[in-house]
Amino acid sequence: MPNAPTDKPSPWTTLDLVKWTAGYFKDHQVESARSEAEILLAHTLKTRRIDLYLNHDQPLCEDELKRFKALIKRRVDGEPVAYITGIREFWSMALAVNPSVLIPRPETECLVEAVLPFLDGDAGSAKRVLEMGVGSGAIIIALAHEHPEHRYVAMDRSAAALQTARQNARTHKVDHRIDWFCGDWNAALVPERETFDVIVCNPPYIRSHDIHGLQPEIRNHEPRMALDGDGDGLRCIRHIIESTHRYLIVGGLLALEMGCDQAADIARIAGAVDHYGPPRTIKDYSGLDRVAVMVKKGLRPHANFVI
Ligand code: GLN
Question: What topology is assigned to 90-295 in CATH?
């Protein structure tokens, strides 16, 4: 590391370090170089990002510099910043993350937004919401935070992921609203006996063949189990659409995150299953198709007939 922070004769201040590290990250093709430099320095100093600027001329002691340098090296070696700090913000909540869970993406907030209108309703009537493959718990914790009056069931086949999600639920004080199951998709549920008003899932949907083309941060560090949707990317999505109608009430909602080129496939799969109305596609903040929602068809038990 030529001209690295320790080579400078006078003490390095926080502002010097942010600038130097942003440049160094840029030279090493780290995206969002400046903000990642700030995140790592704030993490080293156990402070907020804004404090780096409020105390811009604060010098770092040798130990702080040493620890910061170690983080710079891990980032340049390809580790995602969220795994280095152990934290990622989602739905304005700080969530613990580690390599056993996918790092929550901003576009997944669209999935939360798509579900929220279905959770409004008469006060006093608690709905049942299932999330399959919770990972860090980002989605279900956001929903339970917005609608604490409902009951939630969280499933993941990774015990380590479930532990992380529970820890996050405790931090955000919704743990008591959620039942936790370690299991493979809906294997632990009894059809027709366990019915939900809403089932939500961000399944693995990347084609196996495309995994090697992802950024090394994703490819080499994030759990493949949470990304790889098999040859056509649709294996889990197909399984979910074909099986989950048995766990939904009539009029219940299935909401899925998907790849930006999968809307037509999802419409075709749902059409063939014939238990859902036509899926509606919702775009993310970049204008890409990102979420599919579909409603289970059938006669409501107490439907009013208009003659
Ligand atoms: N959106 C994630 C990505 O781009 C993929 C998430 C998933 O497969 N569920 O890497």
Answer: Rossmann fold (3.40.50)
Sheet with 128-132: list strands edge to edge.
Answer: 178-182, 151-156, 128-132, 196-201, 248-257, 289-295, 280-283
Burial of 63 (0-12, 13-18, 19+ CB in 10 A): exposed
Give 4's pLDDT tier (boundaries 50, 70, 90). low
Cα 161 to averaged position of ligand 1 atoms, centre (Å): 16
- Check pLDDT > 50 for residue 201: yes
The pair of three-digit structure tokens given for residue 155, joined into one six-digit string: 């499933």
144 lines ligand 1 (CB under 6 A): no
Asked if residues 247 and 199 have their Cβ atoms less than 8 Å apart, the reply is yes
- Separation of CA 126 and ligand 1 centre (Å): 31
Question: Is residue 105 within 6 Å of ligand 1 at its C-beta?
Answer: yes
Whether the CB-CB separation of 134 and 162 falls below 8 Å is answered with yes
Q: How far is CA 55 from the centre of its chain?
A: 33
Q: Which atom of ligand 1 is nearest to the CA of 227?
A: 8
CB atoms within 10 A of CB 45: 18
Supply the pLDDT for residue 2. 47
* 273-293 pLDDT tens trace: 999 999 999 999 999 999 999
Burial of residue 1, with CB atoms counted within 10 A of its CB: 0-12 exposed, 13-18 middle, 19 or more buried: exposed
Q: What is the mean pLDDT of the chain?
A: 92
Measured from the CB, is residue 204 less than 6 Å from ligand 1?
Answer: yes
CA of 141 to the centre of ligand 1 (A): 19
**Can you tell me which residue has the tokens 């001329």?**
57
- Tell me the torsion sign for CA atoms 137, 139, 140, 144: positive
**Index of the ligand 1 atom closest to the CA of residue 204:** 8
**Residue 5, pLDDT above cutoff 70:** no
Tell me phi and psi for residue 252, to 5 degrees.
Answer: -75, 160
